[in-house]
Amino acid sequence: AQKVTQAQTEISVVEKEDVTLDCVYETRDTTYYLFWYKQPPSGELVFLIRRNSFDEQNEISGRYSWNFQKSTSSFNFTITASQVVDSAVYFCALNQAGTALIFGKGTTLSVSS
Amino acid sequence: GAGVSQTPSNKVTEKGKYVELRCDPISGHTALYWYRQSLGQGPEFLIYFQGTGAADDSGLPNDRFFAVRPEGSVSTLKIQRTERGDSAVYLCASSPIGQGHNEQFFGPGTRLTVL
Fold this sequence. Notes:
heterodimer, B: mainly beta, 11 strands
């Protein structure tokens, strides 16, 4: 069975702090995809990144970076120099191509000024 | 271009009533997914369409839930004899499967409240 665990329920930081959101996944498939989505207070899920199981290269996009490690089944997300606008619920998710996403329970990030 | 749209944005109904929730996917996206999100939880899969047919409906909780996508574009999620436990945000997503991508793009959701 596939499963995604986000152990951190809530994280609070002050602006400009760096913050890492953890994601651990379980799957028996050798080909799979990992995702991060952001859900701001408005409620709409916003796609952030997709990685496939064969690409363990870390990725950086502006203040966002992702660390994928198959050895520990983890796909962690770091926000550098956090801003108030980063406040949201962040979901990690897993699927095989074309199938439904399996989501974690989400981590609520609160960034205060 | 236009994203995924869902109507209505909010629906309040009474226990036992029938409701229909509509999803307009991104034009050209062949795959369409329905999820349900309860408060404080991640979205949970309900049903997935590839074109007009339901490729996977294993997430539907019971036979009160049904969904259609007759022309391979707009989809309607139908809930019969609603129960208070059906209250949640119903999310629709579409994806351009077959073009080398499988990101799912979500609509704003329909918040269903069953009184």
